[in-house]
Every structure is written in C-alpha cells, then in structure tokens.
Amino acid sequence: MTTVLVTGANGFVGANLVRALARKGASVLALARTEPDPEACLFLSQVADQVTWTEGDVRDRQGLCDLVQAHGVDRIVHSAAITPTPEVERSKTATVVDVNLMGTVNALEAARVVNARRFVLVSSSGLFGSPADPRRVLNEDDTVEADTLYTICKQASENLCRLYSHLHRLSIVSGRLGTAYGPMERASRSRENMSLIYVLAHHALAGDGIRVSGTGRVRDFIYIDDAAEAFARLTLTTSLGWDRYNVAGDQVVTLRDVLEALSQLRPAFHWREVDDPEEADVAILPGRERAPLSQERLRQDVDFVPRYRLPDGLRSYLEWLESGWQKL
C-alpha cells in the first residue's frame, strides 16, 4: 500500500485531499499544526482507518524529514499554506513567506530524503492574475503575473519544484487550483479569506436579501470534490507527461450565474445589483476576475473529467451545509 503525506491536512483543501486519497486505497499520513478538529474528524470518519494524524509544522525541515522516513512515505501532497488577507500580508509578511515558500522547500527536502515516487504541489490559478479576456480559456503555458505575496510564493514554489525535479530526478508536479468551493471550508488561523461561494451559500441558506456588484465578472469555480479527485489522480498515477496542470473550472461562469443558480435552489434568497462595490455585500472587483482554465492535460494524462457543473456543485454544497455542518 502506498503511503501519502498530506501537509495542511486539517484545512479546507487538505481535508478533501486526505479523503480522496484514502478512498482510493492509500494510507494517508495527515500532517497539521494541531490535532484534527471535530469537523475534520466527522468529515473523514468513513476513512478513519486509513488516516494517521500527526502534529507538525512545515517550517520544521528536520521534523518533516524524520517523519517521512519513520512512516515509509513514498508520495507527498503539499497543500499547507496561509491564505492571507491583505492585512495579514502586511502584518505577517515574513510568516507568510516562511510557511508558503520555505514550507515548500522543506517538503521538497523530505521528498528528496525518501526519494519519493511523486511530489504534488497545490499551487494556485491566481498566478494568471486578472485576464485581458476573461472569456478565453487559458492553458498552463499562458503568461503568469504574480503580484501578491501569496502568488509570488506560489510562483517561486513552482520554480523550486521544477528545479528539484531536475536536480534530484524526482517526479514533481504542480496543480494550479482554481476557485474551489464546497464542504470543509471554514475560518482558521491559516485561512481568513473565505471564498465568494462560501459567503453566498450562507446568505442563501439564511434566505437573505443582499446587494451585489460585478455580476458579469467571471471566476474559475471548481467544486472541491472534483479538485480533490484531480489531485488524487495526479498523486497516484504511474507516470505524467507534464510538470504543471490546471485544476480549475474550464467553463465561463459569472457571478450572475452563481446568484441565479442559488436563487433557483433556495427561492427565499434574493439579490439586487448595485454599481458601487463599497455598497455591496458581495462583489467581484475588476482585478479579481479569473478566466476559465483548460483541463486538457488532466483529461489526457489521468482521464479526469469534472463531475459537478455549477448547479450540481451548489446543490451538493447546500445539502451538505444543512445536513452535516449545521449539526456539528
């Protein structure tokens, strides 16, 4: 049985990666800075026998190297990161770099020590920035323009991954995760920025009336189950042809599309558009658009096709919030 280390396992993306890998038969070593919270334990209860939790910090290089050796780890998925607000980027700049960049170095060193069969970096579609043509589907070779501390660290991490692969003959890939939404997103020390759909879903469940701005602007939404499935395949497949893969929505989806779908699913929810983003409860600003991304490489290399289009993903998420999350 293959043993996979997942860093950041108690987070939104990490918990879903742990579940997807365990469902495929992997033994998962789940690394987090603290013991799993009740939400993560419930979410992973059906695969608990295949998951071993361990407390640690990706800033501890020697600790990571000792850990992978002690547990016979042969594959690593590095998802640990701080998703900072602009205020956090200003107040804790060095901490963000220590976790988001040096944490990648340390995880790569752990992969080198055990000659890991696969290392997968959870990168970000934010590297592409706001597109000139938000309706043109981008591929992995399109120009990137990192302009925040978060995306600068992701771009540097991708570059380090390519270099480590060359220097140490390791199979290393980066998956550029789009705007993920779905179960297990919640505020934490590492995640203060909640996704747009998280905010809208909670308004929809409450039957709120809200003001919105930028309804014609687009994002690269992907349901977290689909994202986790793609990353699991990248981790476990025998061979891959590329070192970068888009893991994001490949359809043009506007904020209006999300609002209309939520209104269909929860008719008590209603919204009206305002011109001034400052007056809006929810807004997509011009610089925050994300173009759809081609998933052709995923289709070719790991036979991945998303299961959830927007209405299906929103329905599943709302049902999960009502039946599972609210009972915790």
Instruction: Please report the total strand number as a whole number.
Output: 14
**CATH uppermost class of the domain at 3-183 and 221-250 and 291-308:** Alpha Beta
- Helices, by number, come to 11
Helix content: 40-55%
Beta percentage is 15-25%
Strand order of the largest sheet: 3-2-1-4-5-6-11
Average pLDDT taken over every residue:
94
* Main beta sheet strand tally, sense and closure: 7 strands, parallel
Structural class: alpha/beta
Categorize the overall geometry. globular
Intertermini distance: 33 Å
* CATH architecture title of the domain at 3-183 and 221-250 and 291-308: 3-Layer(aba) Sandwich
Radius of gyration, in angstroms, nearest whole number? 19 Å
CATH superfamily of the domain at 3-183 and 221-250 and 291-308: NAD(P)-binding Rossmann-like Domain
Low-pLDDT segments: none
What's the helix-strand series?
A: EHEHEHEHHEHEEHEEEHEEHEEHH
- In CATH, the topology of the domain at 3-183 and 221-250 and 291-308 is named Rossmann fold
Explain what the structure shows:
This protein has 328 residues and is an alpha/beta fold. It has a domain of 229 residues: Rossmann fold, CATH 3.40.50. The protein is built from eleven helices and 14 strands. The strands form four sheets. Strands 3-2-1-4-5-6-11 form a seven-stranded parallel sheet, with helices on both faces. It has a three-stranded parallel sheet with strand order 13-8-14, with helices on one face. The longest helix is centred in the first third of the chain and has 22 residues. The mean pLDDT is 94.
